[in-house]
Amino acid sequence: MPVILELILKSLVLIFVLLTGFAYMSLVERKVLARLQARYGPNRAGPFGLLQPLADGLKLIVKESITPKSVDVPIYFLAPVLVVIPALILFAVIPVGPGDLFQLASKVNVGVLYVLGVMGVAVYGIVLAGWSSNNKYASLGGLRASAQLISYELGMGLAMVTVVLMAGSMSMADIVAAQLPTQFGGVLGWFIFRQPVAAVVFAITALAETMRSPFDLVEAEQELTAGYMTEYSGMKFALFFMGEYVKMIAVSGLFATFFLGGWSGPFVSEVPLLGLVYFTIKVIACLLLMILVRATLPRVRYDKLMAIGWKTLMPVMLANVVITAVLIVIGVPGYK
Amino acid sequence: MPWKTVCVLKLIHTVMDLYLPIFVILAIASGLAGLIVVISIVFGPRKRAQVKAKLQPYESGMNAIGQGQRRFPVRFYLIAVLFILFDVEVIFFYPWAVAFRQLGLYGLIQMLVFVGILFAGYIWVWKKGALDWETMDK
């Protein structure tokens, strides 16, 4: 069936792009961090260190895959797989351009719910990795991760409620359509201008959900060595990194779709390919912001992390939902 | 054909139409992840552990004491219970948010009552100290 072939091809392209993005994201991150700390970063493998991701990958493939004696073997092997799969399939509902060519599953009418669900599944991999390793660092890291991820899922869920409220639909395609320049005041139609609070909260929770600095307590090197992945080696270790970075890309894609107008931009209706270009630019901007945050901010303390999630983001987002609903009922321009 | 069969077939058709891409990418992603795990076993060297310490849990060079899976503070459990409560309530917002334009003022009042109840519970939990990480286990 040609439909199936088309879907397989699209999925393969998407996964290839995500994995290449992951490889070069790791290089860009090391480079940018190095420059911000007055170092050079990787510059030996190929010009400007461009072959570094390849070298890292090859090295990890030929490393011995050690299985410590005390681990729970089936779960120990399952955990990294469970981390990677949700990260890879999260992107499926995000439209990367106008028209059918640039979308995989963005017509799914519960796209936002799908995102929440897949994010929820992603917690399992990390918790199981921490638990099955039978290592004190790992189980502490896994515990911290589970508490952190579920706490920030609330804030993220409420931020997405606001987006759904504005768009009146849970489908990603409709959310982008609600922000098109024709709808309301050009670039001001983007939800980042109509819902600034939700955008900021979504950005914060996105950092926490991807366990990025300043919320990287899960793998705080000084106290927990490598957290839940302490006992992993070789490609299984690489899978955790892959999961983390692909999730970063996916979350940036979500932020671009929810708040930066997705693929919209000037001249997209004439040249559809431009939509893909704009979307890529927006995602890269979000990713660079994540790297800059890591280079700038110190790690928060664990009790403060919980306090931010439960005592600040929750009430702020509840109030935001109520205020948005009132504005919609009154019919304020931009919220009708 | 009985109407029930027609309904089921139509449902399957709609679901397949919308969700087939997700099943396809799920299958490919699972295959890839499994393949990578197998690759590391196939291509990596398989040495017999020369020393017993190699296969011990890593504790920064010290001999491992006791089990890795220890008892953990009850506050993690408490957070999980609170999460379930509030997450279910957040999920209730979604259908309301989708239908809000049709519900209008009526929907707003309904939701204000709901948020009021939710918020009262939230304040109660806060006052009970369940959200204070430091004092939670006292």
Give the quaternary arrangement of the chains: heterodimer
State which percent range the strand residues of chain A make up: under 5%
Global shape of chain B = flat
The helix fraction of chain A, in percent, is 55-70%
Mean pLDDT of chain A: 84
Strand element count of chain A: 0
* Count of the domains of chain A: 1
The dominant shape of chain A is globular
Largest beta-sheet characterization of chain A? none
Query: Ranges of chain B with pLDDT <50 over ≥5 residues?
Result: none
* Terminal-residue CA separation of chain A: 44 Å
List the total number of helices of chain B.
2
Strand tally of chain B is 0
Q: What class, by secondary structure content of chain A? A: mainly alpha
Order of helices and strands of chain B: HH
Number of helices, counting only DSSP H or I runs of 4 residues or more of chain A: 12
Q: How big is the Rg of chain B?
A: 26 Å
What tags apply to this protein structure?
heterodimer, A: 336 residues, mainly alpha, 12 helices, 67% helix, B: 138 residues, 2 domains, 2 helices, flat
Question: How would you describe what is shown here?
Answer:
The complex is a heterodimer of chains A (336) and B (138). Chain A is mainly α. Chain A contains twelve helices and no strands. Chain A starts with a helix and ends in a 6-residue tail after the last helix. Chain B is mainly alpha-helical. Chain B folds into two domains: 3-55; 74-127. Chain B has helices at residues 3-43, 74-127. The interface between A and B is large, with 84 and 67 residues.
Outline the fold blueprint.
The complex is a heterodimer of chains A (336) and B (138).
Chain A: H1 2-36, H2 52-61, H3 73-90, H4 111-132, H5 136-167, H6 172-177, H7 191-194, H8 196-209, H9 221-224, H10 234-259, H11 273-296, H12 302-330
Helix pairs in contact in A: 1-10, 1-11, 2-10, 3-4, 3-10, 4-5, 5-8, 5-12, 8-10, 8-12, 10-11
Chain B: H1 3-43, H2 74-127
